[in-house]
């Protein structure tokens, strides 16, 4: 065997060994350069051709070309193998176990106030009422004067009011919407108006400086106290169940005459008396009455022709009762662990 042939074979063997040991594609590239590159060992053999007698040159050329082909094939094969191994590793690392339990998606929950308001609106819309909105920042004229609560009337002090200036305040009651609706003069009126009210009260289990009321008002010809009783009785039965009884106690509100407070039979004990109703069998729910003739007049209606009834109910009170929540503060803290119970 000529020394050239031996040399080429040796290069081929060395290349095969190094390719066999290579554990990364980068390493194979280095090997390619080392053997087949411009300064590579196989290329060096070709460079030494000038020392070979011309008749032998084709032979040497063939050895070198064969060796180059073999090394190239080995390299290609190894690159393929390493890439396949790499891919297999990647796939294994990215494997998803579809049998694992999924991560829980937290979804939002409705606030008990919102759930209770929906319920109240559903009941009154079903009886043909319209839902009306009124301003939270109000003239004292609408919050008090037009509701038959003149300057210096003690009721102005009873509801500790947040004043913005002499004439403008944060409304203390949704009754303020009554005057707005009557002044529009679109009769008859059958409306409820839910919304936020403000009183400078300290926060405790049953008080907050800001809470919600739902006002209701019906104005038409020939409206009687029986209409008021019938309507609110239906409301109570729809809200607390068909067995619910109602009772009207005489009361006083400046803007209604006569006025009453409505109690419902305790939906916990059915009226026998329990801890929930403090033993009385009854739970106070709302204030109501026949719209005072002065109020009608001040709002541009003729009390000889038109009359009606009105009522006001605390939304939080309904939510607390209906969902048996014993502290109003829970409604404002928005602790998701609490809100989760409602849907
Ligand atoms: N505005 C009263 C309050 O805040 C509730 C009320 C009582 C509203 C009687 C009325 C009503 O419309 O007729 O305590």
How are the SSEs ordered, and which strands pair?
Elements: H1 3-21, H2 25-36, H3 41-47, H4 57-93, H5 112-126, E1 130-131, E2 137-139, H6 140-143, H7 155-158, E3 168-170, H8 176-184, E4 189-198, E5 210-220, H9 225-240, E6 246-253, E7 256-265, E8 282-291, H10 293-298, E9 307-314, H11 315-322, H12 330-333, H13 336-339
Parallel strand pairs: 1-4
Antiparallel strand pairs: 2-3, 4-5, 5-9, 6-7, 7-8, 8-9
Characterise the protein shown here.
With 343 residues, the chain is of the alpha+beta class. A hairpin with a 2-residue loop joins strand 6 and strand 7. Helix 2 runs antiparallel to helix 4. The structure holds 3,4-dihydroxyphenylalanine (DAH). The site of 3,4-dihydroxyphenylalanine has 11 residues, from strand 8 and strand 9.
